[in-house]
Every structure is written in structure tokens, then in C-alpha cells.
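This section describes the prediction task in plain terms. A model, or a person checking by hand, is given the sequence of a single protein chain and must write out its three-dimensional structure as a string of C-alpha cells. No templates, partner chains or ligands are provided. The sample shown here is typical of the held-out split.
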Amino acid sequence: MTSSRPGWLKGLFPVTLLFVAAFFLHTHTRAEVLPPRKGLALFPAEIGPWTGTTLTIPSEDLSILGPGEFLERLYHGPSQTDIDLFIAYFPSQRTGNTIHSPKHCLPGSGWTPIKSSVIHVPWGNGKILNANYYVLQLGLNREVVIYWFQSHGRTVASEYWARLYLVEDSLRMNRSDGALVRVITPLAAQESVQEGKQRALAFTKRILPLLGGYIPE
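The expected answer:
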């Protein structure tokens, strides 16, 4: 049986969730707990067979991102194809400086999603990474993207669930810190999507055990 609910009404629900979460965080005035953590600049430049070079994030991008700490690093591996790692950490999201989802930036930058899904990746000690998986295309160029929202030991693919957990944790833990982690690798001319995905996943599994020191649990 199909639902008779209008399409605009279905779209209104997640927007309402975001509004409620933003209103709560803005009006919740109790002083926050800010746990100790390492600065993102200290994140390892050597990860398995990859060696990273830190990139300068343009000032106009930083002004859009808002107050937080950011790292973008290009890792060079054994193949000729690099991996771009971006981490955005926000110590507090109560003042409206919440994490921007990459999917909203894709159309504006010209990249078109030709494949997308939510993936659940086991990575050790029974833990599961819940993340978004995209294959993007711009002209003849293709790239694989994996990204997720991370806070307090939890990884979430949905930005709406990330906001709801943010409200819950603000009440339960008096914390609204959180992060976005994004991994991108371009596909070589004759490379299959599966090969690119496996490379991105191999790198992702390497960094997952390291992130807890920089994104507090």
C-alpha cells in the first residue's frame, strides 16, 4: 500500500528535526564539558604505507565552516593515486555552528553523484563504521567519497540522526562537540569503482583506531 502523504510533508519532517535541535542547543545555557584531546595538527602524517602532506584550507572556506578545528591532508600511497583526508572538529555546536553535510556542497562544486549508499563497515572489537559512500563524476573525472559524523564514540551516516544524538548527548553528557570525517580518492582512467572503494576503505580502517584521541569519546 502506498502512502498518500504529500512529498513536501515528508520533506518537512527532517527540516523540523533540524530546527528543533538547533533551537534546543541555542537555548541550552548550562556550561559545557570540554574533554581533553589532541590537536588535529598532531594527527599522524604516516599511516601504514601512506605519507601525508598538509594542505592549506582557503580562508573563505574557513569562514563558512565557522569556529572549529580543521585538517586537510593529502596522503600519498604505494600507488599513484592519492587519498584526501578532511577532519572538521567543533568543540561546541550550541551557537548555531553545526557541522555542514558534504552532500549539500556537491551540486555547487559541479560534481554529480552517480552512485550513493550507506555502508556499515566492521573494523575491530565488534565496532561498526556507519558512513555515506558516494561515487562522483565531473566530466571524465571520477572519485570515491566516504564520510561520516562522529561524536562520543559514535559514527553516524545521517546528519539528522547526528543532530538528534547531539541533543541527547547535550542533556546526558553536557557536551555538544562533534566532527565530520571525509575520505576522498580519485579513480584512475582505467580503474574500476570497486578498486577505488577498496583503497578508500583500506585507508579508512587505518585511521579509525586513531581518531579517538582527536575526537573525544
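For orientation: The chain has one domain: 7-213.
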